[in-house]
Design goal:
The chain is of the alpha/beta class. Helices cover about 30% and strands about 35% of the residues. A five-stranded parallel β-sheet has the order 2-1-3-4-5, with helices on both faces. Strands 10-9-8-12-11 form a five-stranded antiparallel β-sheet. The radius of gyration is 21 Å and the shape is elongated.
């Protein structure tokens, strides 16, 4: 079953994060992204969805106020940074109540509830372990598996619950921890900071505890400096 949903939230970062989570962990169709209640009401007049992700604290018309204007059968997953609205949320057809920042573990638990609400329970499985040693890997983007060549990756940047993969031509978000990705990489990729893994083949220079790669300046932290410089010394004349 392909469930249809929309995101209603006035915070672009929160919308982007949910979009990544949906695209990389489910087969749902994300039909739209609305940044205020009025935009959402107009969208819902024209489109049929199975459920909505609804932020509570929005200007002009709150998520709770919007929920009261929607058809009573509308299924809702509330998303908010405030726990005090939880009790009030269950006056509606509420499937779940997600507190921000939404973690991968909590989102996967929510997917179980959502699928169960529609009679389609799916088991949550772990990512397979092991090194990426064939020169490429696949990244899920919506319903597509994108093939990424390791030689084209400049660096991985950890951002809380997800990782930004950067090549010379594009950036992709992967909803995994940087530590997990590090465990699947080998040379020429080296961890240089709590937030960065770099492709040493593609860096242009190292200067004053910083790496320059592409158009990015990346710090080398004391924690990872010795290992990183050991790799660099192997290539020094």
């Amino acid at each position: 079953m392909n469930l249809r949903c929309i995101i209603i939230d006035d915070e672009p970062n929160a919308v982007n994060l949910l979009e990544v989570l949906i695209g990389q962990t489910t087969q749902w169709q994300l039909l739209g992204k609305c940044y205020n209640a009025l935009e959402a009401m107009d969208f819902l007049k024209k489109h049929t969805v199975d459920f909505i992700f609804l932020d509570i604290n929005m200007p002009h018309l709150t998520g709770m106020e919007l929920a009261g204007l929607l058809p009573k059968e509308t299924k809702i997953v509330f998303t908010t940074a405030y726990a005090e609205h939880a009790a009030d949320s269950y006056a509606f057809q509420t499937i779940d109540y997600l507190l921000k920042p939404i973690t991968l573990k909590r989102f996967l638990a929510a997917t179980q509830k959502i699928e169960a609400a529609f009679g389609n329970v799916v088991a949550v499985t772990e990512k397979p372990e092991g090194k990426v040693d064939e020169g490429y890997f696949f990244v899920k983007s919506g319903k597509t598996l994108r093939k990424i060549l390791l030689d084209e990756v400049l660096y991985f940047e950890g951002e809380k619950e997800y990782v930004r993969l950067v090549t010379g031509t594009e950036e992709l978000l992967i909803y995994r921890r940087l530590k997990d990705i590090e465990g699947q990489l080998s040379a020429p990729f080296v961890r240089v900071h709590n937030s960065y893994i770099v492709n040493t083949k593609l860096l242009s220079k190292v200067q004053d505890n910083h790496i320059y790669i592409g158009d990015k300046q990346i710090p080398v932290s004391d924690k990872f400096r010795e290992v990183f410089m050991g790799v660099i010394r192997q290539r020094m004349f």
